[in-house]
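Our consortium's second objective concerns turning raw sequence data into structural hypotheses that experimental partners can test. To show how far this objective has progressed, the report includes one record in full. It was chosen at random from the queue rather than selected for favorable results. The single chain below, 491 residues long, was entered without modification.
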Amino acid sequence: MADLNWCPSSWKSRPAAQMVDYPDQQHLERVLAKINALPPLVTPAEIERLRFQLAAVQRNEAFLLHAGDCAESFDACTQQNISAKIGLILSFSLILIWGGRLPVVRIGRIAGQYAKPRSSKTETIDNREVLSFRGDNVNGLGSDDRTPDPERLLSAYFHSTATLNYVRGLLTSGFASLHHPRDWSLSHVRSPALRNEFEKITQGLSDALDFSHTIGADSGRESVPFDRGGGRGVLGEVDFYTSHEGLMLDWEQAMTREADIAVSGPSSKEKVFYNTSAHFLWIGDRTRQLDGAHIEYFRGIRNPIGIKVGPSLENAELIRLLQIVNPDKESGRVTLITRYGAGKIGDHLAGHIEAVKLSRHPVTWVCDPMHGNTLTSRSGFKTRNFGTIISELTSCISIHAACGSRLGGVSLEFTGELNDEGFSVTECLGGSMELSEEQLGLRYQSFCDPRLNFEQSLDVAFLISNYFKEERLGDKGENGIYAALGGRNTV
């Protein structure tokens, strides 16, 4: 039910964290007015469809994959990068579907994930104090380009539009057709035992697709390429949703639109507000203050929302947050994205699960095993250890099971980007390719947080898929893939 005391600008009456100080406020207002007059990037119908699908995740009838870059850049808005990212998300989800026999809801950190929260307003570069880099939609990465520029917000709108337009084009023109798993190279897998496990999974996928073809699941127009008049069919078209951290409230307000929604029948309508810059938005660990501007804004939009949950969030505060943003306890509304760190998850997750169960608030539980496990290498690179990442993930699965709960999804920072020679980025240590600290500098490309590369991402997909398959078949034996990938016991 709509709150009559809320409007898209009511957040301005609250203290706001992580806000950008623009030197020319009149310039900012002109740009925001222009953005407010531009068309929405996504539609209310798409947002409502995602809410419906997330409600299915809450009932354990689907699994959520939330993945993409830590922060996008304008320069990375290219055909190659977008195709690689979407292709990796599709491959990852196909592997999950095979193991879990569940639909996968795909939400990309894409088409708007430009802003960066920072712990300090300034940083020192070459013995000179400059404003911190806040993302391409605020200022430039170069130390001489740090003055916040409102025109970058407008540029963010058009880069998001171009990205989303190309994603929609890919997914409606055959790009999502199931590519044969035999074509997936496993040459990067150094361990013979691990390669054998992966080959079993890809062979099973291959056999299933061959069977589908034989019985005519892709017969008729579906078997004809899309560009030759073929239909899309069940094997060729997927839902895909966009997301970003709802950090810059001036931008979010400018992209908020009022719409009517049926409440008790076609003739009964209620006015609600949608943020039309993305289907899904989340509140970060730095901006979830109960009396803060971000919570005030988020409580009024109808989009499904995520809340980052870390070690500093007390049980009572978590429940109060849920009461504020979802007072009517609507299904599909709230996703809790946990990010404790492999060494801390055992101290906090079970308490959070029990508190939410007692409150009877419907939520989707998602594990972010990335943000609590960042470190600096001896060579100075910001990195993450693959073994620690999967340790938090598997601990999360186990703790949920012990609490009578179930993990509903995973949130990952990964990229399918390849360089001109066809090599993946080198930003996270370990995985089946056994990336060493000495190799981090070979193709380290992130200007934000380190991402899993293509091979490491599929490692995670195979791990989760294998777990779900063993669970489905009642096999409680040792997970050989987990041990081979360097997983560590943390709980």
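The partners drew two points from this record. The two ends are 41 Å apart (CA to CA). The mean pLDDT is 88. Both points have been shared with the crystallography group to help prioritize constructs.
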